[in-house]
Amino acid sequence: MARVILGVSALYHDAAAALLIDGKVVAAAQEERFTRLKHDPSLPVRAAGWCLHHAGLRAEDVDQLVFYEKPLRKFERILTTSVAAFPRSALSFPRQMKSWLGDKLWTRNRLVEAFGLPSAKIGFSEHHLSHAASAFYSSPFERAAVLVADGVGEWATTSIWRGGPEGLTPLAEVRWPHSLGLVYSALTAFLGFAVNEGEYKVMGMAAWGQPRYLEQLHQIAKLTPGGGFTLDLDVFSHHWHPTRASTDKLAALLGPPRAPGSPIALLEPGADAGARAEGQRHADIAASTQRWLEDALLHVVRHAHALSGEDALCLAGGVALNAVANHRLAAEGPFAHLFVQPAAGDAGGALGAAQWAAHAVFGQPRPAGPFRCDLGPEIDVGHARQLADDLGFPHDEVSGEDQLAAGVAADLLAGRAVGFVQGRAELGPRALGHRSILADPRGAGTAERVNRQIKLREPFRPFAPSARAADMGLFALPPAAADLAPYMVIASPAADQLRSEAPAVVHVDGTARPQAVDPGREPLYHGVLDAMHAATGLGVALNTSFNLKGEPLVGSATDALATLARSALDAVWIGPLRIGRPSARALGE
Amino acid sequence: MGQLRKVWIGLTGRFAWRFRAAHLLRAFSRTEQGSALDMFAACEATPRRELRRKYFRHALDEWRHAGVFKARARAVGGRSATETGVDEAGVIVEHGIIGGRTLFERLGERDFLAFVYVAEADAVEQFEVYAARGLPDPDTQAALSVILKDELFHVTYSKHELERLTGAPPTTGTAAVVGAEARAAVRRIRWSRLKEGWLRLSLDIGHLMTSLWLTLLYALLIPPFRLLARLEPAGWQAPSADPRPLRLRLQSEA
Ligand SMILES: [Fe+2]
Ligand SMILES: [Fe+2]
Ligand SMILES: [Fe+2]
């Protein structure tokens, strides 16, 4: 009989559920797509319910539920840290204890209640093990070294593993409070962005600055001989302060922090000289932070190479989503092959927890073929049509994939930005042509228009291109990164042709973060790019996630229409259905 | 009852606007964002076309309000840059999803409409008191009066639709709800909101007490252990060996 394993991540960052049947990933989804709370950490009741429904199963059909970490070990870390940091932990202790004693300590019971499974069917992986498994078992490698780097799991913040047919073997780990991810987060907060959300903004902003503060950062977060690193625990305060990740000593080194929500003068045409200088200082801090992370990762990756003796490396954990650092690892690092699991954050932990149980514990074979991220729900076209009718959105429909591809390309070529909702939703933060906003990248004003009027977000944030797999010569991807091309997880220098012809998808530093669209794996999306190529000689689209700033990727048809109504987007394609902008009257204005 | 509530809102409001304006505005923003999500969820789920349109428009209003309140919070002063929580997972708002079910799914159309009516009427009352006195600045005042117009629409349409759905002759404006079934639904919602408010209050008090107790425990019990607990050294450590077979490891929370 088939073995059904449900992986669950929750109660910390991105809650998600993943369903494996006989080792094959059948469905996976993040809770935020259903509840609409970005990074929703609550138990993924809806996501899991959907996974089971999709597979035609019920809760009692699940043989094993695997939670992605060990709650008691995490509690031990929190308690030990509070005690060791006495009396500075006076504020964080009651908060932490309340949330643990009242809730997280009883994770097993909560899982039993929420998913209706007997306690005997509930198991626990480990946080970094889940990350490592999600990267290794999704990779094309038979054997590989695995590096996990995030904020923190139970104790480990950085860990090195060896993956092979025998399973995953831990080789070494760096423990809390020394954490690469938390250095980046502390600087993210210092720059006035929300932690776990603003890290992308720091990476985007970095390209506008010079790493003038790199030396200061290397002083407070030192790389040590032997491939390790150590944080100055008088500067960083994540181990004892409930809400602050750094002390005033950081401001003494870098100048005053940026107030959240204050305008970023970098690209504001009307800004005065003082504001501009301040904006430049922030960009320089971002550039220094980014460079420090790259230096640190290279340092760590060299150690992983020496320790494991493998020639392929899998990366996971939130830090692995840093596409700029990934380029340096591929270009300058010691490994011949690199793989990054695109749902590298904690949502991927649900997947990895289930994969570890399936392959390492129960010995089920790994499925063949490259990893696909489109594991989530599909939007029903009939329901979307009904909704568009009811809400007074104009719509029409094409028949067949060729007409659909031609219709989307025609929109793009006419200068329109469209929502592109096709097939199953992606797991993880990257939209890869299933829940995307697409635009023609050829105009210089496109990037700013999409940022300001469509996504309602900061103008300095870059956009990524999707290109036909045959056109990957437009990007100088290092040879080690060949397996990363389909996932938008690496930012590499753009070729001259792309810089001159498609400025909207080239960042200010001349890099681009491409998605290679394969005709076999993504025939429809490839068709769109083909049609654009036939018309313009360039088969490239600007592809950004279909959401507004601060919101999760669209989940339902209502979400898609709501995004259309609230932004300057021109149309949304849901399957073959093209929905245009509603009249003001239809919206009751 | 109504008059008492107004006095209470006026008193607490004056204090809150004076000392915690940004906090209050952020709380409003979260509430508005939460109701936008509740309304979008209702729009997705309702089988009734005429209601779907109203829910959608309502959701868009609340979403806009959330943005206005957030901008006002920012303008009257916010937290310092480094005050962003390490554990704070992005922008979390509160809304009606409990145990994976949306407010609409839990209440059904009729009680959902009654809920919207009661919640919106309460909001109007609150905003009217605030608009009448004591707002921090003319911009917030102006923003609130624009929002108040939308809220009045939310009250009237939800009442109208509730009456229609329950077969009563629908009324307009701010007249009292008519029809036995509609009135019963409104009463039920009022009662459950009252209970919830009470529950929240006791929970808040409970939390406060727990915090005090834990702080006391912290001060008394932790110091002796202070010397025993050490933070982990930096650098690479050998992973702690776990001799248990994999299946046993899987079963354990530790
Ligand atoms: Fe993690
Ligand atoms: Fe509102
Ligand atoms: Fe309202």
List the helices and strands and how they pair.
The complex is a heterodimer of chains A (589) and B (254).
Chain A: E1 4-9, E2 16-21, E3 24-30, H1 32-35, H2 45-55, E4 64-67, H3 71-84, H4 92-101, H5 107-115, E5 122-124, H6 127-136, E6 144-149, E7 156-164, E8 167-175, H7 180-190, H8 199-206, H9 214-220, E9 221-224, E10 228-231, H10 248-254, H11 273-308, E11 312-316, H12 323-332, E12 337-340, H13 347-361, H14 381-391, E13 395-397, H15 401-413, E14 418-421, E15 435-439, H16 446-454, E16 464-468, E17 492-493, H17 496-501, E18 511-512, E19 515-517, H18 523-536, E20 540-545, H19 557-566, E21 571-574, E22 577-580
Helix pairs in contact in A: 3-4, 6-13, 7-11, 8-11, 9-11, 11-12, 15-18
Chain B: H1 2-19, H2 21-45, H3 49-76, H4 103-132, H5 138-165, H6 180-225, H7 246-251
Helix pairs in contact in B: 1-2, 1-4, 2-3, 2-4, 3-5, 4-5, 4-6
One fe (ii) ion binds at residues 32, 62, 65, 147, 151 of chain B.
